[in-house]
Amino acid sequence: MFSNNDATKHPPRDNPERAQASKPGNAWPLPRHLVVGRGHRMAWRTVGNPAGAPWLLLHGGPGSSCQPGMLVPLDLTRHWAIAPDQRGCGASRPRGQTTANTTQALVADLEVLREHLGLERWSVLAGSWGTVVALAYAQAHPQRVQRLVLRGAFALRRREVGGLLLPSPGVSRVLGAEPCWPGSEGGAVPPVLMRLRQLLQSGTPGVASLRVLRRWNMLETEAAGRGIRRSLRHAIQAERPALASAIRRGWAALQRQQRQAQAQRQRPGMGPSDRRALNKFRIQAHYLLHRGFVRPGELDRAVMQLAARGIPVDWVHGRFDAICPPANSRRWATMGQRLAGGSAVLLSPCSGHLGHEPDMQSALRTAVRGPH
């Protein structure tokens, strides 16, 4: 099923990573760029065995980028990873650009890349916001998708976004006493996003914009930390000491990141990390304000279409995810199983939202390297 004949029309044109295929720690190359229209150039990388089964990696965000850690679930001796940065994200150019940047444009970009590589079909590994892009792509081009592994599915509901952006006891702890955040407890999400987009669109952000993007970054980290803390408590209660030890190491690293962010929150001027955050959150505010450019019910229709075509989907969702509710994946997996038994699988690792949490990585390996 993973043979190259099944996956490609002819051998890939770009295969510079062949010699590093078995060394994922050293296999993250410099990006190449592909002109995709309206002034955008999409950055992309390939890693692994070009003769192996091709896997398209779709990062989250919106506004993030592909990272070497996304390769962990793959066996790079028999898989070929294709890792694009979405429009305006990561190494794509121009950075932070929201003009002509929609989900439909991202789907079209993936088709340009597939054709450039000469691939007939590929499998898709996506996380968080990337699951939205994956479902949109699979709905538009089902004949190009062999299977999907979707982590921490995002349903684009206002409640999900509000849980991250609107003040609550945990959020208030992060924001502090300064009245710099545009949201209030129990408020509406669209006005918050409109104000955030307004503050972050300036080419030379002022003090208010700088404070907002730093706090948004802190809010994301705090929400991710809630999931890790819950998974750690569960691992301890379930008497899984090896897993608890691994989670503690990740939790300690996240705490260091939180302390650094707190220490820098009042620093004057914009540093390199602030510039990266500005580009990321410009894209994120743009997409969230427009509900991901996805019509109501469209994600459900994509799931049903995949089931009708018998395209396998592995839904992998941390049971303590504090960013995207686990109910998203449970509902879609149940929908797929009801329409086509066996086409949808649900895995619920002892983890939060992040793809690099230890039990999440184990579940993703199981899904990617499983019997499909």
How many β strands by DSSP?
Answer: 8
Unreliable stretches: 1-26
Structural class, by secondary structure, is: alpha/beta
Fraction of residues in helix: 40-55%
> Helical region count?
12
Shape: globular
| Percentage of β-strand residues | 5-15%
CATH topology name of the largest domain: Rossmann fold
Describe this structure in words.
With 372 residues, the chain is α/β, with parallel strands linked by helices. It folds into two domains: 4-156 and 294-368, 3-Layer(aba) Sandwich (Rossmann fold); 158-292, no CATH class. It is 45% helix and 13% strand. The protein contains twelve helices and eight strands. The chain has helices spanning 4-7, 103-117, 129-140, 158-165, 169-175, 189-200, 207-237, 241-264, 272-289, 298-309, 326-339, 358-368; strands at 32-37, 40-48, 53-58, 79-84, 122-127, 145-151, 313-316, 344-347. The chain has an eight-stranded mixed sheet, with helices on both faces. The termini are close together. Mean pLDDT is 89; it is low at 1-26.
